[in-house]
Amino acid sequence: MPALDDAVLTLPAPERVGAPSAWALLPGDLAALGPLRGDPERLFSRLQRVADWGAEGPAVGKSARALLAHTDLSLPEIVEAHPSADGATRCVLRTSDGHRIEAVHMPRATRNPRVTLCLSSQIGCAMGCTFCATGTMGIVRNLSAGEIVGTVLALMHRLGPRSGHQLTLVFMGMGEPLHNLAHVARAIEVLHHQRGVGLSPNRVTVSTSGLVPGIDQLGALKVRPLLALSVNATTDEARARLMPVGRAWGLAALKAALLRFPLRHGEKILLEYVLLRGENDSDDDAVRLAELARGLRHNINLIPLNPHDATALAPPDEETVQRFARRVRALGCLCTVRDSRGRDVRGACGQLVQDPARAPRPNPGVSAGGTPGSSPPRTR
Length: 380
Fold this sequence. Notes:
10-stranded mixed beta sheet; two-stranded antiparallel ribbon; 10 helices
C-alpha cells in the first residue's frame, strides 16, 4: 500500500487540463460564453434535467451547439454495471481520458421511493487508510466538477431516478472529497440549482477522513452539504496507525473543527466508525468514542469492516458489534449500525477500487491544474 506523503495534505492533487466541462457551467457561465439565441437558464435546464432528455441525451439547438463547441460535452460512460442481491448496483464509469471510477446506485423501496448515489470525488486516493481498498491506488487525479455532475446525470439517465426530488448523494466513494473541495463544491452548487436537478443540500453528505482546514472551508460554503467524519479510532496513536491523516490532525483538533462547524436546525454530524477486530472494538474504545461525541449534535454510524483482498484486517463478530453499539448507546449517544449494501458485488464501503494497471498511460493533459480535456460533443 502506498505510504502517505504528508505533502499530499497541503498540495493539490493532479487535475486534467483541457476545455471546460459544459456540465459544470451555471446559467451565468453559459451567458458569458457568447451570444445565445434564447435564455441561458433554458439551455442550462436542457442540459441538466434528465427527465427531459431523449434516449441519447439532451437535445440542444444549432445556436447552443455553436456556443458549446469549445466545451467538453462528454459524460462519464457507464462501462460496467454489477447488480447486487440487495438491489444496489456497483457501476464502473470511464472518463473521457480513459480512467475508471466507481459509483454505487442504491434504491430504497419505501413509501416515498428514493435513490442514494455513492459518488467518487477522485481517481484513487492519497490518504492511505489501511482498511480501504481505494487507498491502494494512490492518487491519480481529481475528478472535475463536470465529471462529478456528469456521473450523477449519467446514472440518473441509465438507472434513475429521473427527478432530483427522489435523489440523495453521499460523497463516500473513491477519493477524499476535501482534498478536491473546489470541484466538489462547484458540483454541489450546479446540482442544487433549481433550473437543473434542484437537489437540496440537506440531501448531500460529504464524508472526510479528517482534513481539518477542509472541514472549516466546507462549513463556509454558500451551498453547504451535510458533514460526515470517518473517525475509526479513539486514540491518536491508533488513528495515526490506521489512518495516516491522523499524523497531521489529532482527535482534539478534529473535535474542535466539528464544534466550529455551523449546523442548521435539526442537523447532525455523522461520525462514521469502521469496526476492526482487535483494533478498535473494545469496551474502552466505546467509552472513548462516546466521549468524543459528547457536546456534538451527532449520529454515530458503526460500519463492520467490509473485507477485501487489499487488507489483512477483519470485521468483529456480530456479538461484538452489538455489544459495542449497546455500550455507546448506554452512554447517551445516538448510534446505528450500517447495513452495508452491495457487498456481494464489491460495492460496499471501503471496497471500491480499480486496478491502476488498467489506467491509460500518463499524457500531457494531466497537470497540477485545469479542467478535463475536450472530446467531441454528443448533443443532438
